[in-house]
Amino acid sequence: MKRRTLLAAPIAFAASRARAAEKTKIVWWHAMTAALADEIARIADGFNASQDQVEIQAIYKGGYADTLTATIAASRAGQAPHLVQVFEVGTGTMLAAGKAVKPVWELAKETGLAIDPKAYIPAVRGYYSLTDGRMASMPFNSSTAVMWYNKDAFRKAGLDPDAAPATWQEVRKAAETIKAKDAAPVAMTTSWPTWIQLEQYSALHNLPFATKSDGFDGLDAELVFNTKPHVKHIQRLLEMSKDGTFKYGGRDTAADPLIVSGEAAISFGSSSSRGNLVKSAKFDWGEAYLPFDPEIIKKPENSIIGGASLWVMTAPERSPTEYRRSRSS
Known about the structure:
Elements: H1 2-21, E1 24-30, H2 34-50, E2 54-60, H3 64-76, E3 83-87, H4 91-95, E4 101-102, H5 104-111, H6 122-127, E5 138-143, E6 145-150, H7 151-156, H8 168-180, E7 186-190, H9 193-204, H10 211-214, H11 228-242, E8 247-248, H12 256-260, E9 264-270, H13 274-280, E10 285-288, E11 306-313, H14 320-328
Parallel strand pairs: 1-2, 1-3, 7-8, 7-9
Antiparallel strand pairs: 3-11, 4-11, 5-11, 6-9, 6-10
């Protein structure tokens, strides 16, 4: 009996290794960091633990732009990942990628998976769908631009912490008060300058950002954000930079640490920053809508979505099983 037990252990171990070797590996490239990277890991680990046929390998490939660039290079080399998270700015690039991608609607049809696009918020599904409603990619993380503010800094400056400024005139006045009272090292900053201070600004004020319905009606669209309202807004930011009430923090998310650390009193950024604020902020903070200019519009329009979706990539000699597993994951 003792000998039989000793022999059973290596046999069971070998069988276990054989089953593990049979797992289909699905490589998933993503662009999440900090609290959102933790969420990616939780999703991948949870899926891997739920079954023994597929193993998701979630790999961070840099920021959104870096991930898209790496995906294009890998696809041209015939080594694309199975899944890739691409930010909404890259949707046009992916739609034009031809056979380099396998649209979600096509993958669903091939594998017999029923997907109801109506399960998604219309503004979200519409962004990642073809004109006939077929989904090109799977919405994954959606966000929009908001105003984050440090309530402790507002209190120190004598401002109402529960009444965030709603107009750009009020924002500028608040920033001047914060600077005058030395309530925070940085009165105001912004992440994603182009997205928030040009594209979102255009949407809120119902101003065209480009011709051809902002590019949705054709690839020959031309940018038109050099109108008087746009120029006036950029001039306002330049003036605030000169008087010390605005600090340029860099491209993309480079300015995020200024609000999370408590250095900035007001910051414009993605709503996705909430996870980092919940996890790391050591101060009382608030969230508010983006401000508008009442001289341009009396009631602001909606902001537009940000975030990213998941695209299924093709590669030479990729097996039907891998596509089926990509669907399952």
